[in-house]
Structures are given as C-alpha cells and as structure tokens.
Amino acid sequence: MFLIEKAPVDFSGLMERSTYPFELMGVGDSFFVSDYRKAESARISAIQFCKRKGKPWKFTQRKMDGGWRIIRVC
To answer: Contact, 69 vs 61, CB < 8 A?
Structure first.
C-alpha cells in the first residue's frame, strides 16, 4: 500500500507557458515557422489546444518560401 503525501503545489505558472499564440488568433490569422520540425510541433499543438479548450477551431499548415505557415481556418 502506498502513502499519499499532500504537499502545497503552485500551479500558477503552468498556464503561462504557451509557446504558440493560438488563443489570440482570429480566423485567417497565421504565424511563420522556418523549421519543419517546429512547424509540425506547432500543428500538433494546435490540435491539442482545440481539444483541451473545447474549441471548434481548425488550423492548417502550408509550405511557403523559406518555411511553413500555421493558419487558423475556422
């Protein structure tokens, strides 16, 4: 059997760590990412953001000159 120890934990900084500006984006807004791996990470983060926040938003990723653009489409 395991003993659960209660400890005071401060979670206030967790919600302030967002890397991408999804919450601030309107339909048609986009941001540019030059590295493919980071662009893929941003695309997946957008999907997870919508699932976690319960938003019906959609994002897409498009190849542009010199990188990729993450676009909110609806």
So the answer is: yes
| Sign of the alpha-carbon dihedral angle for 25, 26, 32, 38 | positive
Model pLDDT, residue 20: 87
What is the H or E stretch that residue 71 is in? strand 67-72
* Joined tokens for residue 44: 């997946």
Residues 6+ apart with CB under 8 A from 66: 34
Nearest to residue 70, comparing CAs of 35, 14, 12, 29?
29
Full pLDDT tens readout for the chain, 74 residues:
445 455 555 555 544 567 888 888 888 999 988 999 999 999 999 999 999 999 999 999 999 899 999 999 99
Token pair listed for 73? 């489409």
Gyration radius from the chain CA atoms: 17
